[in-house]
Specification:
The radius of gyration is 39 Å and the shape is elongated. It has a four-stranded antiparallel β-sheet, with no helix packed on it. A two-stranded antiparallel sheet has the order 1-8. Helix 13 crosses helix 14, helix 13 packs parallel to helix 15 and helix 31 runs parallel beside helix 33. Helix content is 58%, strand content 7%. The longest helix is centred in the last third of the chain and has 30 residues. It is α+β, with helices and mostly antiparallel strands. A hairpin with a 2-residue loop joins strand 6 and strand 7.
């Protein structure tokens, strides 16, 4: 495993500990917000390299290689020295050797390794002052900055970006600034980076007081290299925002021709300026709209994010949503698609109507082969369906279901299940579309994926209950497909549908015939020992095989074809010990028998035959479950259910037929009502925030001056004024989402309770820490 050395000296640790000491005033409920000031004087040494090194090397061998070796041997010795330093070894005896024999080397590899060595060694003494011998290294750095080779200059400038000692940097400032005029862009780019890092130090303003002016004049001089311009503009953006804004305003016409890395920094600047001064949004939105026309995906994405963050105008939101939809379709990276879908989901919360018009563009993302993208897309689309777009969405989902039949991948079953669930939700929201999809989905009742087939069965059950006009067709199609169903859960749901909704004499006779065929002839247990005859046929195939030693052997393969595979579906499941399914079959037979017996148009002989046959099958299932010849013995609940059904069919005049023929449907109706009530309550809670205020219809922009303003600026100004006037802007800020950023640092019963409010902006993390003294005494020297 790679070992990283990220060490701080004892003196640094002590000073950091003293700097972070806090005194907390006591007083029970008194709360003191501890301001965590950055200790600029203490900069701990960080790790910028990961090097694995487990070979012991003596200092004598290293000194010999550094003194007498050639360039390759010196480079190898320098690598070992750096690895030992990273491993925590202190080897001060090689420092003078490196100064005498390595510093004068002209080899570029050796000079690069020398810079890494200089980065790792301790440059300050115990008193915190620069070591005297560092002057030798400083002279070498100055020579490198004036070296005729541009690679050596650039490497040295990059090295200086990681140096934090002012005494070491101060004599090098003139040489660093002089490299801004070098002919090679590699040197100029790193010179700008070095000036930026030095100016960013605690004493940077004293080291280079005129750094912003130098960089601004450098930018104005017509630099052609994109990376160099980006670094220079980033320096102004960070340390001299007004100068960056002036440069941007003076070059507005050419912003669209700037490279992507520079345009993203421009967008960061726009967000920062508009956050501090919202009145300037109109001026910068023009720049954003200009950058929307670029061909770079990252720039377009950042433009869309900036538009959403700065403006509430419908035109801006629509432009951002269009950009997201284009990225969703055009980008092949799955991570990009997932991020864009998250953005669209956030956009849906306050701009649902705008996204509803783009639902088909969003739905095109399900063509991606990634199942997570498909799932997120369907979740987003289901929240956007309306009576206007339901037909298009349903047609698209039907096409995907048909397409999934020809696909044979590991995720096809899961994707089909997602499609079925999506169509199910569409049909529940808009029952008029159920007739166009129900028969297509019923073909998947026999699907090998039990999850998707079960979802189809539940969907058919709800549609059959809520749409009376579709019941005859559903019953007829279900009876045709029943013999192909091989899932116990799907069979149980299908049997409930058949028993509940087979109301006509023809449907009841067809249902009994289908169940008779699926169960096979009664009784279910044959033979003197109560065993079902189950003979297996075994086939043997042989072929020659070559062994590892080169000799030949005969390899035999046995294939067994069990007769059970030819058994009807319900009989096969019962023989496997599915006692719950036997209870469901008995209940269905009881419902059908009660309807036949209570019918006045059925002859008495047929009633008696139906009654006897149903009782025979129930007794057969009881004998099978208690015979001990099935893998799982019948449980008591199922046995009691079968006995009850047998008694009800045998004595129908004593049974309460309303419980069997009406109460089941009423219970299911209550379950559906409760489900719809929970869903409507959840949607009401999610839409609790007002989408529009009562006075949104007042057209304020007719009263505003339109001179020099685009339609987008007018809409944005109206939306901002309206939100401010109605107090809606304040309610959005106080909606409680900020509490999600509060992280508990200690336990509630600890002596000191601490929590922090976390704010993250790009790579900057700000912690606002609140500490509470839970004791009755003052606490001093408290370190967080």
């Amino acid at each position: 495993a790679a070992r990283a050395s990220a060490r701080a000296t004892t003196a640094h640790r002590d000073r950091a500990r003293e700097a972070t000491t806090r005194w907390i005033r006591s007083g029970g409920a008194t709360t003191t917000t501890a301001t965590m000031a950055t200790v600029n004087q203490v900069v701990e040494r960080g790790c910028s390299m990961l090097v694995h090194f487990d070979r012991a090397t003596s200092a004598v061998e290293l000194k010999e290689a550094l003194e007498t070796g050639n360039a390759e041997e010196k480079a190898d010795a320098m690598k070992k020295v750096i690895s030992l330093l990273l491993s925590g070894e202190a080897i001060p005896q090689v420092f003078i050797t490196i100064v005498r024999y390595v510093l004068p080397s002209d080899d570029h590899t050796v000079q690069k390794l020398l810079l890494l060595y200089m980065e790792m060694i301790e440059k300050c003494g115990a008193d915190g002052k620069i070591l005297p011998e560092m002057i030798l290294l400083c002279q070498n750095l100055r020579n490198n900055l004036q070296h005729p080779n541009e690679f050596l200059r650039g490497c040295t400038l990059r090295f200086l970006c990681r140096i934090t000692e002012p005494d070491l940097l101060e004599p090098l400032i003139p040489s660093i600034v002089q490299n801004l005029e070098h002919r090679h862009s590699y040197v100029r780019r790193n010179a700008v980076m070095a000036i930026n890092k030095i100016y960013d130090l605690p004493d940077g303003e004293h080291l280079i007081p005129d750094a912003p002016e130098i960089i601004e004049s450098f930018l104005m001089s017509g630099e052609n290299d994109l990376g160099t311009r980006r670094n220079a503009f980033l320096m102004l953006y960070t340390h001299a925002q007004e100068r960056a804004v002036n440069y941007l305003m003076n070059n507005l016409e050419s912003v669209s021709n700037w490279g992507d890395i520079l345009q993203t920094v421009v967008l960061d600047l726009i967000r920062k300026v508009c956050r501090s001064d919202p009145t300037q949004k109109g001026k910068y939105i023009k720049v954003i709209l200009m950058l929307l026309g670029t061909n770079n995906a990252s720039v377009v994405y950042e433009c869309a994010n900036t538009l959403v963050a700065l403006s509430n105008a419908p035109t801006a939101i629509k432009a951002a949503a269009n950009c997201y939809c284009q990225l969703l379709v055009n980008q092949s990276d799955n991570n990009v698609k997932l991020i864009v879908l998250d953005r669209l989901t956030d956009l849906k919360k306050d701009n649902k109507e705008l996204l509803q018009a783009m639902i088909m563009d969003i739905l095109r993302a399900i063509s991606s082969p990634n199942i997570d993208i498909k799932r997120k897309t369907l979740d987003l689309v289901l929240d956007l369906i309306t009576p206007r777009n339901i037909d298009d969405v349903t047609s698209m989902l039907k096409t995907e279901v048909i397409k999934s039949q020809s696909e044979n991948t590991s995720e096809t079953g899961e994707y089909r299940q997602l499609l079925v669930q999506a169509i199910h939700k569409c049909a529940l929201k808009f029952p008029e579309v159920a007739g166009s999809v129900i028969y297509l989905l019923m073909d998947f009742l026999s699907d090998a994926n039990s999850g998707s087939s079960a979802d189809v069965a539940y969907f058919v059950r709800e549609i059959a209950f809520t749409n009376k006009s579709l019941r005859p067709g559903i019953i007829e199609h279900l009876l045709d497909l029943f013999s192909t169903i091989r899932s116990s859960r799907v069979c149980a749901t299908a049997l409930w549908i058949i028993g509940e909704f087979s109301t006509t004499q023809a449907e009841q006779e067809a249902a009994l015939e289908v169940i008779r065929m699926s169960l096979g002839p009664a009784p279910l247990v044959d033979g003197p020992d109560g065993e079902e005859e189950d003979e297996d046929t075994t086939e043997t195939t042989t072929r020659p095989a070559v062994l590892a030693d080169g000799t030949y052997a005969t390899q035999a393969a046995y294939s067994t074809s069990a007769a059970i595979s030819q058994v009807p579906n319900l009989r096969e499941m019962l023989l496997k010990g599915d006692s719950f399914l036997s209870a469901v079959i008995a209940s269905t037979l009881t419902k059908l028998a009660l309807r036949v017996i209570g019918s006045g148009s059925v002859p008495q002989a047929q009633k008696n035959a139906t009654q006897a046959e149903c009782m025979l099958y129930i007794v057969s299932m009881l004998r099978l479950g208690t015979s001990g010849k099935v893998p799982i013995e019948m449980d008591r609940d199922s046995k009691a259910r079968l006995e009850l059904c047998f008694h009800v069919i045998g004595h129908p005049e004593e049974a309460d037929t309303d419980v069997w023929l009406k109460s089941c449907g009423e219970s299911f109706a209550l379950m559906i009502e409760e489900k719809l009530r929970r869903e409507s309550q959840a949607s009401a809670n999610s839409d609790a925030a007002p989408v529009a205020q009562a006075d949104d219809l007042i057209d304020f922009h007719h009263l505003k001056s339109r001179k020099g303003m685009t339609q987008l600026e007018i809409e944005d100004a109206v939306a901002t004024d309206l939100a401010r006037a109605t107090g809606f802007m304040d309610s959005v800020k106080k909606n409680g989402r900020s509490l999600d950023r509060v992280m508990q640092l200690t336990g509630l019963s600890d002596t000191v309770y601490a929590e922090t409010y976390v704010t993250v902006h790009q790579y900057d993390i700000t912690l606002d820490v609140t500490m509470i003294n839970r004791t009755d005494e003052p606490l001093q020297n408290v370190m967080l």
